[in-house]
Design a protein that fits this description.
Blueprint lengths: L2 E7 L12 E7 L7 E10 L4 H4 L20 E8 L9 E4 L6 E5 L3 E3 L16 H13 L7 E4 L5 H12 L3 E6 L2 H9 L3 E4 L5 H11 L4 E6 L4 H7 L2 E9 L19 H5 L3 E4 L9 H13 L7 E5 L4 H7 L8 E5 L1
Parallel strand pairs: 8-9, 8-11, 9-10, 11-12, 12-13, 14-15
Antiparallel strand pairs: 1-2, 3-4, 3-6, 3-15, 4-5, 5-7
Helix pairs in contact: 2-3, 5-6
The chain binds NADP nicotinamide-adenine-dinucleotide phosphate.
Length: about 325
């Protein structure tokens, strides 16, 4: 008899989620059905997009249902398999996260790609966040060598790869982050760092202009809010703004004001485009082929913030909004 412990939502959070919004529950799993796989999860991913799934409303993805098992990316080891493509002991990735043991149809499970990296890298630098950084820069912002590139949340899972990809493409890169440690890490990678904490729009605008007096050809947007306004004020002609995320707004209880200077898009003949990485997943093998060899040989420096134990999953998730993660936030089981 195998049990699975999993998180559910007790209620849809109001504002910043609280530990009490989540419940840890347990069930006995049924015998494996035809083509099913049972997986002992080793790593769980918590990601900012999950906040949108906790709103009870449809965004670009289904909301979580109250009192139903939550889901998210996870890496684990096959414990039992009724599917011809999976054998016991194999390491796999799937969306049955927020739990310790997952039972899924084999067509919802994938073997880890064959690169010599720690398995949890496939949830971060070589997983969805890494693919997002690559997609936003190359497919949305159409970054060119020599561009002046601005990245917000620049030490996070997406941002930390985005700044390094932009550097290796020969761009002048400015990264915005929320602590001196994070800024120091950026400077050590050759990225001009701006700490946004304690700065209003005017101070942010000045800091971004000081960091690149010529302005920016590309703005890789992870945050929104006052930072977006400061960035719009610093665009160059024909700039491209890739709207990847707007984390500053994810816990808002009512609609916030938009950037007051949206006219800058017109004046600078600039383009702003939102994207969702899953629509670009056909290019995942191109991304891996390009980026994974650099990760394998240590030429890309990626960080992880690791919480231990299934019980810590909600706290790990909440900490994303406090900026206490550096690089990819993970839960190790
Ligand atoms: N479009 C897509 O398909 C897609 C896919 C993946 C991720 N995303 C988006 O990309 C962004 C980054 O995701 P991630 O997984 O890499 O997370 P992350 O950057 O690793 O973690 C979130 C970081 O955001 C910063 N932050 C939180 N609240 C903030 C605020 N109010 N103002 C400024 N900074 C704030 C914090 O860093 P500081 O210490 O610097 O504040 C925090 O560490 C998110 O907006 C996410 O929704 C989009």
């Amino acid at each position: 008899m195998t049990t699975s412990r999993y998180f559910t939502l007790k209620q849809f959070p109001e504002g910043l989620p609280k530990r009490e919004d989540f419940a840890l529950e347990e069930t006995t799993l049924p015998a494996l059905d035809h083509n099913e796989v049972r997986i002992r999860n080793r790593w769980l991913s918590v990601d900012p997009y999950m906040r949108g799934r906790m709103s009870g409303a449809m965004t670009y993805i289904e909301p979580y249902e109250l009192r139903q098992p939550m889901s998210g990316a996870a890496v684990g080891e096959v414990m039992e398999s009724n599917h011809p493509q999976f054998q016991v002991g194999q390491r796999v990735r799937h969306m049955g996260g927020w739990r310790d043991v997952a039972q899924l149809p084999g067509n919802e499970v994938e073997k880890l790609p064959d690169y010599d990296v720690p398995e949890q890298a496939f949830l971060g630098v070589l997983g969805m966040p890494g693919m997002t950084a690559w997609t936003g820069l190359n497919r949305i912002a159409r970054m060119q060598e020599g561009n002046r590139v601005l990245v917000s949340a620049a030490s996070g899972a997406v941002g930390s790869l985005a700044v390094q990809l932009a550097k290796s493409a020969g761009c002048h890169v400015v990264g915005v982050a929320g602590s001196d440690d994070k800024c120091q890490w950026l400077e050590e990678r050759g990225v001009h760092a701006v700490n946004y904490r304690g700065k209003d729009v005017d101070a942010l605008t000045k800091a971004l202009k000081d960091a690149s007096p010529e302005g920016y050809d590309v703005y890789y947007e992870n945050v929104g809010g006052p930072l977006m306004e400061a960035a719009l004020a610093s665009l160059r002609d024909h700039a491209r703004v890739a709207i990847c995320g707007l984390i500053d707004r994810y816990n808002d209880t009512e609609a916030g004001a938009g950037p007051r200077n949206i006219n800058q898009l017109l004046f600078r003949k600039a383009r702003m485009e939102g994207f969702i990485v899953m629509e670009h997943w056909d290019f995942y093998t191109d991304f891996l082929g390009e980026v994974a060899p650099f990760v394998e040989k240590g030429a890309i420096d990626y960080r992880e913030t690791i919480e231990e134990g299934l019980e810590s999953t909600p706290d790990a998730f909440i900490r994303l909004f406090e900026g206490s993660n550096f690089g990819k936030m993970l839960v190790k089981l």
